[in-house]
Queue: 4 jobs
Job 1
Amino acid sequence: MYTFKEIIAKKRSGKALKKGEIQSFVSGICSGAISKQQISALLMAIYLKGMNQVETTELTKAMAFSGKVLDLSRYDTPTVDKHSTGGVGDKTSLVLIPLMATCGLKMAKLSGRALGHTGGTLDKLACFSGIRLDLGVSEMHQLLASVGCFISGQTAEMVPADKIMYALRDQTGTVSSLPLIASSIMSKKIAGGAKYILLDVKVGTGAIFNDLSKSRSLAEWMVMIGKSLGRPTRAVLTSMNQPLGNAVGNCLELAEALQTLKGGGPEDFRRLCFYLGHQILQLSGITETEADSQILMSTKINSGEALRKFKEMIAGQSGNTSCFDDPASICPGDHEPVVLKAIKSGFVASIDTKAIGIRSMEAMEPTENEALDLKAGIILHKKIGEKVERGDNLPSIYGRDMRKLKLLSASLREAFTIMEYKTDPSPLIIDLVS
Ligand code: URA
């Protein structure tokens, strides 16, 4: 058996690690037997030399079972988890989780907080005062049995190896490694226990990878890992070349998700929700054709059932549901936004999605002694391909501190490129990997 030092040296010289070596390294990470320096050295060796698909699957398995796993095998109905690799304005989980639960699925959604410039589903749900986002395993089961869905952070005992490795990847510049990203995401999905997994892998200026071939490889690897660990998995490659929908920011996005659950919402966001919903329904055997899925989802939305399911889930997680009757209460009505106006006419040719994400986060940042401003964020009035007249509103930016908003708004000007000729946005739904 190799020592930890020898395992690091083996990977440094580009050799493939064996199952036993990967398992002993991961258990050493969790037991504290391996120093942070050694973990960091192995992460850098993996970053530079890569891992093949077999090694990545073994790493995923070792990480997934490094702590507690949810056992959802007791349910007769299919259990599903859905994951996005992170985007700007991506609030699809808020619509899809209750919508899919009304279609007869058990939706066990383990979510995260904001990461870099991308928003986190848990932060959006935090707009419901009092909501519990740290459910214990028995509460998760109670909600699945009674409501059919929950959205929660993973428990502290789940996937401890990922917590340690992710923190060190962040400090050592080794985040953007395909095997490390694939194993980090898939270990959490495997530990989440759902039988079926749908992945939304973003591509573009606001995504982990701007490059389509890298995003495609990530999608293919994650699908392969899921399948080889007995979890039927599909991935959809979708564009993050502009924010999804019009709202970016926690409560603003929640308001947009509520509109969509009521049958409205921006066209691109609604289309993506329906497409992802169809993939989930087909993967789990509820429907066969896209037409069947569309009819089922439209019925659940038009009848108000999907919205009621969302309210039931929020109440089940102890959240205040008054905004379902009074939508204005979640909107940032107390302060007027600062509005950035176009200084020339033309068509929006591109939007720097990452910059929109960063400015929205900055608008939310608390000043001394204040809490994070969940109502802060950005509403886009124009998206790629739309006609703009000089003086038209581009984005509105919301928050508590007008001075800060004016500075942020001015810096947003560079995020919009306006050209004389119309450019169509890149397709929202790029490809399906199954
Ligand atoms: N999300 C994760 O959970 N892990 C990564 O490595 C990247 C995105």
Job 2
Amino acid sequence: MGRKPIIALDGPAGSGKSTQARALAERLGYRYLDTGAMYRSVALAARRAGVGPEDGAALGALLERISIVLEASPEGPRVLLDGADVSAEIRTPEISRVVSGYASRPEVRMAMVRLQREQGRDGGLVAEGRDIGSVVFPDAEVKFYVEASLEERARRRLRDFGADESDTERLEEVLADIANRDSVDTGREHSPLLVAEDAVRIDTTGLTVDEVLEIMLARVAEVTGCSTES
Ligand code: CDP
């Protein structure tokens, strides 16, 4: 086989996309692209500049000025905004709360999709997001749509934050944030979250990372005709 495939992973917040995409990329020796980190970086840059999601002209100008680079590092993927590492800052509850508003803007989507397609030029990429299989790489050789129940997704997110799962107040907060983002991401006009026609749907509720990884590897092997055994 010539060019290595592109693998698209889409799904809602907390569905396990990031963990699975990273594990899959590592196992296959492919590059990993976290497109959510790009939208989060735009939201961070816009907040710093005092630009709201409704100001299309100011957002357009901001997008011309900023540079967003995703790079691999020994500690995992890093996000550089204008050369500075913002990997932690883009994950704060404040950015999580506002990111979907910025991500729904066509100016923002156009600029990010262009950068994402550049990353896929040579194949050998696992890309995760909301519109990867539908808009960014509609010809991706393998597509997955990863989902899980809302409660399970909220519990996972709470664990990511290192918080106690029995903290019901915090759980309610996270659940509300995720439900709100689900609704904005699904209902938006441009590139909404949807299941691409040819995507394999995986409900990760109650499955371990390894179990999901095995399902994915089997599908990759089926499509590429190569064994993915390590
Ligand atoms: O990790 P989590 O699922 O919380 O979110 P993320 O993947 O970091 O994405 C953050 C937000 O960026 C999403 O809620 C979407 O609003 C937006 N996004 C998008 O619109 N399109 C993508 N391809 C990726 C993310």
Job 3
Amino acid sequence: VSAHVLDGTAVARAIRDELSARISAFAQRAGRPPALGIVLVGDDPASEIYVRNKMKTGMASGITVDLVRLPKTATLEDALSVVRRLNTSPAHDGILVQSPLPDTMGPDAEAVVFETIDPAKDVDGFSPVNVGRLVQNRAVLHSCTPAGIIELLTRSGVDIAGRRAVVIGRSDIVGKPMAMLLLHRHATVTICHSRTLDLPSVAAEADLLIVAIGRPAFVTRPFVKPGATVVDVGMNRVSDRALVESWFPPESPKRAEYAQKGSVLVGDVHPDVWDVAGALTPVPGGVGPLTIAMVMHNTVVAAEMQAGSTASRA
Ligand code: NAP
């Protein structure tokens, strides 16, 4: 292992610590803490864990987090009516609808939900208004995973301006907003996806390689320029023993974790990349905690913004 560890847990803690004074000041002015409403539809086990972590972090930070649960049989209209109620609720500053929504809601369900969320309360930054503002470099609420990655890079002293950045993955949630944020910080950005020809050669041009594809250990050494900074967004739970044994040597803590739990969390980046990258995010402990810290950050920003606009209207 030679790459420097980009410690997402430490940066996330710093972001949360910096928020605490703003949370107290808001609570004093408003007579209540900043408040986030989370909508969780169905019982997807990964979503349960993400929501539990957001609630735990919110409460530990002094932010009120209300969870609205809907059964997996709920209709899109049921979800929209919860969103509309939260839009007009004076007790909620932020709204987050956990993805994915059940398939039964139809292929456009998430887009319709994101269009319905009040852009001023859209802590995920997914509403078309906030996406448009992001493109124009005027966004206040940025989507949390890419914004957290920018915090990690800048606070770790990684240069962005003028560097070659390659983003693998073009999802609305990670890849596209990531590319836009890097562009606004003056990187020269290439976006890759499943149709990109000769992906390893394109990736190997990057000084800054961001990987968000959802395929365990996909990015191997030939994808990485020696000394490059690599951010591994992938979070893949793998239970196949042969795969785990092929990626991790017997002395690796991942093997012990597998023996204990029967599965391990693996990023999109192969562990061999530690030998060639200059800096790399671990999984877990890299991007995940940053995403949650940025949900809290955006809730505080949304609360301050709405309180400001209420005060200016009064
Ligand atoms: P997604 O919506 O499934 O998008 C995956 C993207 O990867 C697509 O653009 C797809 O290309 C591309 N892709 C898939 N296979 C590829 C291949 N063989 N070669 C090149 N590109 C390929 O996923 P997502 O929501 O962006 O999430 C990606 C990963 O990040 C997942 O593991 C997810 O769990 C993780 N994630 C982590 C966090 C966190 O906080 N740590 C937050 C969000 C997501 P096409 O567009 O051509 O299909």
Job 4
Amino acid sequence: MALIVAKFGGTSVADIERIERAADKVAREVKAGNQVAVVVSAMSGVTNQLVGYCQDMSKMHDLREYDVVVSSGEQVTAGLMAMALQKKGVSARSWMGWQVPFKTNDIHGKARIQDIDTTELKARMVENEVAVIPGFQGVTDRNRISTLGRGGSDTSAVALAAALEADRCDIYTDVDGVYTTDPRIVPSARKIKRIAYEEMLELASLGTKVLQTRSVEISMKKNVPLQVLSSFEDHIGSDLPGTLVINEEDMMEQELVTGIAYSRDEAKITILNVPDVPGIAAKIFKPLAGANVNVDMIVQNISTDGKTTDMTFTVPHGELQRAIEVVEANEDLKGAEIKTAENVAKVSVVGIGMRSHAGVANTMFETLADKGVNIQVISTSEIKVSVLIEEDYTELAVRSLHAAYGLEGDAP
Ligand code: ASP
Ligand code: MG
């Protein structure tokens, strides 16, 4: 017997038929003797519609009321999921976020979970009642409804799994796992069977939008094994059909490179004629941080004349304008010249095996050189090497790197 939290995303509960299919999966777990708590998203498209209503009502709406409106999508699916289970002869009961409760702070619109009281849920789960819980919802100290930010249902599920000390949190979605790279670019990309939390975090924050980053952080901290799997496949006869996200220590083998990620949401800013004096980096980046600009890659050239240098960095597209304004207004950069480029993309290779093996970066540089792809900026961490290249070469780069690291073919 295991205690499992099963989370179904928006596409997995998009209509009545799909909710029934999801309920079938839950029923199967129950019949296998497991205790199950279900966390559901809103039907796909519903949250967007609700957010749209709020914006149409008022651009400057009260976020406490925004939470009341947008949390309603999950309430609907929770009730329907409980009905679907009951129809299949499975004892089930829905619980809104405030009923459990999922206590959060009072940052409305993107609240953080502080505590989940699972006493009642646990008592009922022991009696084989499936608890059905809307993701995304919480309640503040002041007894107001809160929501966790877009994509927050993953976080609800993982936090609940941690609070219940579940054996596993299954995230059912419209893909059947995490892939070595985007299968739309490389059709031979393969499903990863096991991946470490840290690798998943790098891939998630690099734009592989399978799991909300925050949910991976929580599962890593609380050591909750996560499984990403498809709600559209039958999986009969296989124990762990999806991708298992686990602790590095629990990995049997460490791949040198686990996956290739890319992001087109990059813009590059170069500041020329920056005075080459101690403290200048802080003077450039502090106001940017203050303006909530997310600076990612940074390079500073050596100064040829000993007086001035160039500084290049990247930001998401949506923050480029704000970044330019901040740099232009910077008193310490008088006389500097700003250049920007939006036709850039970041390609990264990720793998915990890099910690113990040299040469990963070199393979990357040689592979790109062979294809005539120019590298504009490089950044590295312990388990990742990223390069900034011209956006038009993204697919070529991803494809050739995927082949160069031998990620094609059957899973080991
Ligand atoms: N329904 C919410 C959203 O779309 C939360 C979720 O599904 O994760 O952001
Ligand atoms: Mg989601």
